[in-house]
Specification:
Elements lengths: L22 E5 L3 H12 L3 E5 L5 H8 L4 E4 L12 E4 L4 H14 L3 E3 L12 E5 L2 E5 L6 H14 L4 H10 L1 H7 L3 H13 L1 H7 L3 H13 L9 E5 L10 H9 L2 E4 L5 H4 L7 E4 L11 H13 L4 E5 L9 H10 L4 E4 L4 H9 L12 E5 L3 H4 L4 H4 L5 E5 L5 H10 L7 E6 L7 E6 L3 H7 L6 E5 L5 H4 L12 H21 L1
Parallel strand pairs: 1-2, 1-4, 2-3, 4-5, 8-11, 8-12, 9-10, 9-11, 13-14
Antiparallel strand pairs: 6-7, 14-17, 15-16, 15-17
The structure holds S-adenosyl-L-homocysteine (SAH).
Amino acid sequence: MSTQPPQTERGWYPLFHDLRQRQVLVIGGNETAARKIRRLLAVGARVRVVAPLLEDDVAELVEQKRVVWLGRRLRRWWLRGQALVLIAEASPELCERLHRWGKRSGVPVNAVDQPAYCTAIVPAVVDRSPLTIAIGSGGQAPELARRVRSRIEQWLPQSLGSLAALSGQLAEDIRGRFPELALRRRFLDWVFSGPPADAIQRGQNDQAAALVRQALDRQSLETPARVSLVGAGPGEPELLTLRALDRIQSADVLVHDGLVDPRILDYARRDAELIDVAKRPGDNGVGQVAIQRILIKRFKQGKRVVRLKGGDPMVFGRAGEELAALRGAGIDFEIIPGVTAASACASYAGLSLTQRGMAQSVRLVTAHCERSIDRLDWPALAKDRQTLAFYMAVAQLERIQQQLTGHGRAADTPFALVENGSRPNQRVIVGQLGELALTARHFQASSPAMLFIGEVAAQASEFHWFGEPPLCMDTGELALVGHAANLVTLRATVLA
Ligand code: SAH
């Protein structure tokens, strides 16, 4: 019969435990016990051990009188007054007994690598004391938690601890100088990412403290006020640049388009103001001039403003108008590029846009509206040995097909239409230019989508790696649908 209690669903409440001068009972004398004991001693706990046998490392700690070895078998009264019982090694029966006792008495019991016996879990820790990052998986995947830890370890500079200590030392002064939270946060941002942080990274802790003190004495707060124009990429959050992520996380106000993926907006602070200026079918959204007014007004209120645009802000993003308005108002800006849809969709559909022997250039083309589409240089676009990447093309497929074939591009030129590129619902539709509109209609293609035309589009079937394989119509279907379409045209003509 199994002695393990049934694994019911449990929530874990993360908590940091003050163990200074408190008693901790460790069960087991092996290598794991030694590791746990060292950590407990490091936070000031008084550790006692119960184990039938002590391996070298624990024996050494006992010899050094840093740990007391109570005995070989657990006595009930040793449990009294414990802040924590940590099981490094014990029989299932003993684990079970301690687990039940722990639940009854309210004393946390942790059994290493045996979540079923735990009433408390020790997380994996990234230690930048006093800054401590704890990572838990509710006992379900400790190995995964450890992997996450090692990634965070690499990511966070060792100097972070000094930075945390510095802000701790000066916390009261900072609070006194900036009683208002928003201003205090702005000041701390400057401390954590400005010159003081740089000084700490160079190992000049005193210099960092001096800089902060000087800044506290100054009358006005100098923060690098500006508007950030940020590219949010095609959707997949991991395609953001590190700097884009930083600006999104520290923004007071985020003014964003409809194309920006909600998962990216989730990176914003909980108290950040999110302004959606998306155009939706049937309405024109917030007009361009109104957007510019919002940017300027929020900036003048002292806010850190991020203008977040899908893809790259400088590609079909009307950035020029916004930049001109900011410059006109004397407001500094920065521009952070993002992965533009043409590039993201090509990668996620496996198209090598300038494949040797197939294409010598790529053209980024907008098919936005009826009026502008007819002003495109169709004879030039119809030339071969180039890849065309059309943005905003879904409503204009028929036009594009007609114009290109009409100007001499071969009807069997491959196309690939990439819908929702890089997102979980990505679809790729492929075929030949002569059947572009028909195929797209058949699969009910919708926006946002990138249309690629050119020899390289055929690579979508060859180098597919993400999401579902490309969709295409077989010849039978094409003949059938083509026939039906002809009938519809015929009927329309007759009726007219
Ligand atoms: N600044 C953006 C483009 C804005 S125009 C950029 O650099 O990507 C809007 C058009 O971009 C859409 O109509 C569509 O053609 C394309 N687009 C944006 N995101 C896309 C995505 N995830 N998948 C496919 N097309 C996308």
